[in-house]
Every structure is written in C-alpha cells, then in structure tokens.
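Supplementary Methods. Inverse-folding protocol.

Structures were first reduced to a discrete structure-token string of length 160. This string, shown here, constituted the complete conditioning input.
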C-alpha cells in the first residue's frame, strides 16, 4: 500500500513539475525577448543574472545522474528537480541531459512515462484554477456580507 502512495506522490509531483517547468521556460523566453529593448548596461546586468540562475539550476541538477540521489529522493525532491530541468532545458544542455536522465529513471524506477502525466498535469491545473476561483468567490462574498460604512461619513457617532 505504501508503495502505491509513493508512486502516486511521485506521479503528481512530476505532473505538476512538468506543467510549472513549462511555464517557467516560457517566462524565461519572454524575459530574454524583453531584454533586447534594454539599455546596454542594464542588459549586461540582466544577462549576468540570467547566467547566474542557469548556473544554479545546473548545479542543482548534477545529482540526478547519481543512483545515491535517487535512493534518497522523495516526491518533492524529484518534482523540484524535474521542474528545474524542464524550465532550463532550452537554455542549458546540462539541464536537457538531466531531464533525459530523469525521464529514464522515472520510467525505470516508478514506471512513470512523463508524457502520460500531461493529462494529470492538466487535471492539477484545473483543480488549481477551481481553488483560485473558489477563493476569489469567497473573498467577494465576504466583502458583500461586511456592513457598508455610513455614506454620510459619520461612522459610529450618533447624529444630533
């Protein structure tokens, strides 16, 4: 039974990571496109920040090639690593290699075909959007229930 729970947790983590990683990659691409309109000094600083973030991502992903990492990694660590690999694979060959390793290991160790998690990722996205809509509706409902302040500006003081 515990094995099924771990498999479900890893599957959900990978599906969510796939979705979020794709969104982060698109945001990074958009950021790079917007950089072209910046002043040279600002552009150099932005590129430096981008390169620094890419180097951090590559450093985080080094361990996914190790059997020891997989032996101790939980669903959260696997999801985070996969999200990072997805987000940076278009910009860093090492991230693309890490993603390929993760796909292989996920299939070998958990029987998870990352391509098949897309439906699960969409399900997670739909649930998230419903949750956000519910929060918004609750906030609006709460605002309607709160008493409106007195339009005359008198507040709680009695009028003579």
């Amino acid at each position: 039974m515990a094995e099924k729970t771990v498999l479900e947790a890893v599957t959900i983590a990978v599906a969510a990571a796939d979705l979020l990683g794709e969104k982060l990659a698109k945001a990074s691409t958009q950021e790079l496109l917007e950089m072209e309109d910046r002043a040279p000094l600002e552009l150099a600083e932005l590129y430096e920040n981008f390169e620094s973030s890419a180097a951090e991502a590559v450093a985080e992903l080094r361990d996914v090639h190790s059997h020891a990492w997989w032996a101790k990694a939980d669903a959260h660590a696997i999801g985070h690593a996969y999200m990072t690999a997805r987000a940076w694979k278009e910009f860093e060959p090492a991230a693309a290699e890490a993603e390929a390793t993760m796909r292989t290991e996920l299939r070998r160790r958990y029987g998870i075909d990352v391509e098949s998690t897309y439906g699960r990722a969409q399900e997670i996205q739909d649930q998230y959007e419903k949750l956000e809509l519910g929060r918004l509706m609750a906030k609006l409902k709460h605002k309607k229930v709160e008493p409106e302040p007195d339009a005359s500006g008198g507040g709680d003081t009695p009028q003579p």
